[in-house]
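Dissemination and training. As part of the outreach component of the grant, students in the summer workshop were shown how a complex can be specified as a set of sequence lines and then modelled as a single object. The example used during the hands-on session is reproduced here so that future cohorts can follow it. Participants entered these lines:
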Amino acid sequence: MTDRPDSILVVDDIPTNIRVLVELLSQSGFKVAVAKSGKNALEIIDRHPPNLILLDIMMPEMDGFEICRRLKTNPHTQDIPVVFMSALDDTVDKVKGLEIGAVDYITKPIVCEEALARIRVHLQLQKSKLRLVEEEKMAALGRLVAGVAHEINTPIGAIQASISNITAAIQESIQQLPQVLQQLTSEQSIAFFQLVDLVRQPKPMGSWNEERQFKRSLKQSLAAKGIAEAEVLAALLSQAIAPSDLDSIEAAIAPLLETPNPVFTVKTAANFAIVQNNSENIQIAVERASKIVFALRSYARQSPLAEMVSASVTDGIETVLAIYQNQLKRGIEQIKNYQPISNIPCYPDELMQVWSNLISNAIQAMNYRGKLTIAVAQKDDRIVVEIGDTGPGIPPEIQAKIFEPFFTTKPLGEGSGLGLSIVRQIIERHRGQIDFCSQPGHTRFSVWLPANDKGYAN
Amino acid sequence: MANKAILCVDDEPMVLTALRDQIGHRFGDAYRYELAEGVDEAWETIEELDREGVEIAVIISDWLMPGIKGDEFLLEVYLRFPQIVNIMLTGHADKVAIERARRYANLHAYIPKPWERDTIIAAIESGLEKARQHPANEAAGISQRQNDE
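and obtained this result:
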């Protein structure tokens, strides 16, 4: 934290009280601001949020309770600790103040040592709380890093290998082309370059079975025509050309089979397929790596006090899924049911933390095997996101506690127990709701969020 | 003709094609190069090659794949085909899994992604050299030669 003095806003309408408090707090090293009315206080807090607010209850126009209520329903100010100042004997007010979100009260007339001690305790608690929230964020990020290493290393590996293949193919071509071309008649030259064109056509990746069948039929067909080296030729051609009509391929290479060394000739042409295929490989790998990096950047960018922006909930969920891809693919079937929904006003980074927490909990609950169901839908003026897993369920005896801060089922050091409590905080900041139903084999968390900004009007 | 194969198993087609071209450039016509996008496909390929009398010399497998992890797959391979050289090529594997594969699946080499061409070629060559001295392979080699004749 910084060495700057903590700032405290004193809200009171009685000059004597203000004077006592300002003097006491300034002498104790705090930066003090004063508001003489509720309206004035809200303006100051909006412009310069203090570290703590000392709030008088009895004030004309807007009383302390109303000010506190407004602060607690505004996402920008709800985390600032509020300490009420009340008359010594007014128990009703003290309880009411605490109920609407104040952290403490001090009694008037002010007892200096006690007031200072309470203020210091609450400033310290607030700092500890912020630090824990930050640590939870870092722990979540740490869990992601191992998975991200795999996700990034795979495309980098493919790029590196593809480059070595392209370099090798070009080097070979430079050596072999003059030899090959020297041996060809003009008719064979035409066929050779036609084959080069053919192998440079994009070839879909991934249907290895089909490619194997293609190679086999090509080999049989060539062997049936009495062509020696049928297998080597079939291997070369099946790797270079997408499975297609055997007759046209045989017609294309027929003139080349009359050359002194048909395999060498075809291989030289097939080298261009290696350049082509590996270039496409690099393109795919680069896109993959960029997608991961983009996902991480969106994840790490956190600006809690920024304005809400209009963003797609579905995109946020997809970004989180991209980050967790490697954990999901071990043995988790993903079932997505996304209905088209409009963008909603939100803090996209914070919502991503919500999805990340719920998805990560689901994966861990299922021990990496099972079905992850994600549904997004719009119901009237609310968006509902449902995240379901087929894990063993949340035991009934702990269901009431899972949103409590520091509650965790994970071993010491693996989770702070703040994950779901932060999830709920974030959702409440969005004026949303979260609940869940759980039984063995089926747990579902539902998150409701307002679909438009009506709910956010002050 | 090539009656030996090198099988690459990875859930990423981009890794498979790059690997095939890389290995193919070094070993040329001496081997068939087979690709499988997952463990199920790998077993289909293994059965198919076995039926055709093609001997699999080397399997290069990723660790983190849908359904089953590379070390479990390589262990099964080792139990059924102990003469096959096992190599793990992966972006992420936990140390316990590698150790398990070394101990129980006779893992010849573990190569992290991204990999150098020379590293994977050297691992295949040293694996093949080791396999040549494997008693099961000497016997298999003789029976194979007899089949050829």
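Residues 140-149 of chain B have pLDDT under 50 and may be disordered. Students were then asked to discuss how this feature might be tested experimentally.
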